[in-house]
Amino acid sequence: MERKHRFLLILITGERYIKMVTTLIQNVAINGGNEKAVFRLSYSRTDNSGVLKNNEFTRDAVSFKTNGQISKIFFVDFGLNYTRSKARNAYDQGFYREGQNLALMTSYYMPRNLDLGDFYKNYRDSVTNAIKSQAVYSTIANFLHRMEYYDEIRNEESVLNNLQLRAQISPNIAVTAKANYNIYNVNGKRTEYGGGALSKWRWLLWN
Question: Can you give the pTM of this predicted structure?
Answer without folding.
Answer: 0.71
